Inverse folding.
């Protein structure tokens, strides 16, 4: 039944395409512009991320820029991806970044952390590249009773909230994933993360968006709602704010580098 539902809802433009192919990323750029409900979600996300960036000198690096348009919200943003594609300034591996020590003011990501196969290497490298007082700001999938059902049954990416390890096999730049990884790091294993990376302070976690991304269809499914209904769904989700720990599908996570230790 779940397979039939996925087939009925599949987005025709990207159906059957290799998610690791740069051409698929280019098609996703077209989708995010054409699906008005999805575009409004990314507008909201980018504005939220930009508001959390620290002031001061140094560039802001976006990891996994892909099909997005965060540069519309962050002047001078350094866009990057693992492979060459349109509108990308730097091709890089997040576990080995081409920046000097303390060079960056901030790192921003949207749905990227849970694709990084070795987060220990990534955070070690981020610690080196970010200046003291710099921030890492991201929006990632989040684990709640509601999202467990959606990510396990309808989402196309791997989802394993019971994984004992933080790492996973690097099968592809986008296909390799554990959508539960951000929750594992910053909720389930928060004390362990703090012990291993004492230079980082977890400033805030804001669970959000139980329904809207699902209704937008994302990149793999057809949109279920027109753009004009977006404000209504915003209002309905605000009513659920006191219970977002039970209903959220995403979270905005802000970390601050508190020392110069690398």
């Amino acid at each position: 039944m779940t397979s039939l539902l996925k087939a009925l809802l599949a987005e025709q433009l990207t159906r059957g395409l290799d998610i690791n192919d740069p051409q698929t990323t280019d098609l996703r750029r077209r989708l995010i512009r054409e699906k008005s409900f999805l575009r409004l979600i990314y507008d909201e996300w980018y504005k939220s991320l930009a508001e959390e960036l620290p002031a001061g000198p140094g560039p802001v690096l976006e990891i996994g820029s892909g099909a997005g348009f965060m540069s519309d919200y962050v002047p001078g943003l350094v866009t990057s991806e693992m492979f060459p594609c349109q509108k990308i300034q730097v091709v890089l591996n997040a576990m080995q970044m081409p920046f000097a020590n303390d060079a960056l003011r901030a790192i921003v990501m949207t749905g990227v952390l849970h694709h990084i196969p070795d987060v220990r290497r990534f955070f070690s490298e981020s610690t080196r590249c970010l200046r003291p007082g710099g921030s890492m700001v991201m929006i990632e999938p989040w684990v709640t009773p509601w999202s467990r059902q959606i990510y396990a049954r309808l989402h196309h990416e791997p989802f394993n909230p019971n994984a004992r390890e933080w790492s996973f096999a690097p099968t592809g730049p986008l296909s390799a994933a554990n959508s539960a990884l951000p929750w594992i790091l910053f909720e389930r294993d928060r004390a362990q993360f703090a012990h291993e990376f004492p230079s980082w302070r977890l400033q805030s976690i804001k669970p959000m968006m139980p329904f809207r991304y699902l209704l937008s269809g994302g990149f793999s499914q057809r949109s279920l709602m027109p753009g004009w209904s977006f404000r209504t769904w915003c209002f309905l989700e605000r009513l659920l704010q006191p219970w977002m720990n039970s209903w959220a599908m995403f979270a905005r996570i802000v970390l601050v580098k508190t020392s110069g230790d690398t």
